[in-house]
Amino acid sequence: MNKNLFTSLLSTLLILNIVLISTLFFSLGQKSSSKPIFKAFQNATMQINVVEESSLKPIDNATVCIVEARHYENTNKYGRTGFMSVPIIKTNNYSLSNIPDYGTLTILIYKTGYSDNLTFNFHIMPKTISVGLTIRLRPIINKEDLEPTINGICPDPGFCKNLIKLYKKNF
Predict the structure, then answer these.
(1) For residue 10, how many other CB atoms are within 10 A of its CB?
(2) Cβ(119)–Cβ(167) below 8 Å
(3) What residues does 84 pair with on adjacent strands?
(4) How far is CA 90 from the centre of its chain?
(5) Mean pLDDT of residues grouped by 10 in the chain (171 residues)?
(6) What is the C-alpha to C-alpha distance for residues 111 and 108, in angstroms, rounded to an integer?
(7) What one-character DSSP code corresponds to residue 139?
(8) Chain Cα centroid distance, residue 117
(9) In terms of DSSP H, where are the helices of the chain?
(10) By the 8 A CB rule, do 62 and 110 touch?
(11) What is the distance between the alpha carbons of residues 58 and 48, in angstroms, rounded to a whole number?
């Protein structure tokens, strides 16, 4: 290879490297234009009632977890949580003309002696107070009752069990 061609190639590579490094350097302080998949844009307030499946008696001291907020609350002697502020999480998986006004939540409820309960896609409107949600827990009587109750569509039973393990606190 002749010396002039080699020098020309080397100069071109050097210029390209300078352009690349300059582009990286000047873009470091800029915000990314990519949008997150989920966006909490507002809050709502909700209260959840927890009752026994067959008798409908309130369940005291059941743990309620709002998964998206990682918020835990225990029910009182009336089976109710306090009023909880929860995030309204919208998804960007819709066209701009079809974005829903509501958000969705995943709710995990558990108590020793009862089957775990996992609710997917609970719809909640921003700036509202939701007090009508009642979840029924099934008492563990036999081996089959050890399986969690899933409300909504669970993509995979293993996924649901792992989600419960991840968010279930053992007190």
Answers:
(1) 10
(2) no
(3) 46
(4) 11
(5) 54 46 40 40 84 96 91 94 82 57 84 93 75 89 89 83 86 49
(6) 10
(7) B
(8) 16
(9) 3-27, 157-167
(10) yes
(11) 11
